[in-house]
Amino acid sequence: MSLRVEVRAEDPIRRRGLAAMVAGAGFVLVRDVPDVVLCDDAAPGAEVEAPVVALTDRIAPPDAAGVLPRAAQPCQIEAALRAAAVGLVVRLPGTFPLPGFRGADDAPALTAREAEVLAAVGLGLSNKAIARRLAISVHTVKFHLEALFQKIGATSRAEAVAKGLRQGIMEL
Fold first, then answer.
1. Phi, psi at residue 10, to the nearest 5°?
2. In what helix (H) or strand (E) does residue 67 lie, and over which residues does it extend?
3. Of 14, 82, 121, 140, most Cβ neighbours within 10 A?
């Protein structure tokens, strides 16, 4: 059974181009009851029951299951549509315009090392294991933990990971 895709775009030329790409990938174009909606640079509009893959260079719709730049390659769009249709969340590395994430401008600026330490905490590693993995001392790990706790307003490792995920600072 082929994937049913609805294409939404304000620009009729862009809509036709995306529709041709979707049809060329072997998907069926529909206007009602889609498996997934491909939305170009705009909110999907009316209530959408299907997952939405947004092509945008701006903040994506909060309910988007997938977010790709408008210049995404056809193979990326095809993969995103397939993934979103089966319930996966799709985004490019370094972007966080997905549900539950704050905008990148709102996220506290962690240093690269603080972000690495937070990611290691998210994996459940102890301070000693983090130190070994990052080739730093346990004291330095504690220093980075204290700094990142203060920046994100956390009082425990679990709270730091939860806030890091919600704020789009890290991913698991």
1. -70, -40
2. strand 66-68
3. 121
Architecture of domain 4-91: 3-Layer(aba) Sandwich (3.40)
Question: How many CB atoms are located within 10 Å of the residue 85 CB?
Answer: 20
Distance CA 119, CA 88 (A): 21
The span from the CA of 111 to the CA of 15, in Å, is 41
Helix H or strand E encompassing 9:
strand 4-9
Taking 70 as the pLDDT cut, the residues of the chain under it are 1, 42-46, 59-62, 92-108, 171-172
Check: CB of residue 86 under 8 Å from CB of residue 66: no
**CATH architecture under which domain 112-166 falls:** Orthogonal Bundle (1.10)
What is the maximum alpha-carbon separation in the chain?
59
Q: How far is the C-alpha of 57 from the C-alpha of 72, rounded, in Å?
A: 10
Cα-based angle 12, 39, 81 (whole degrees, multiple of 5): 125
Q: What residues does each domain of the chain span?
A: 4-91, 112-166
Q: Buried (b) or exposed (e) across 108-122, using 16+ Cβ within 10 A? A: eebeebbbbbbbbbb
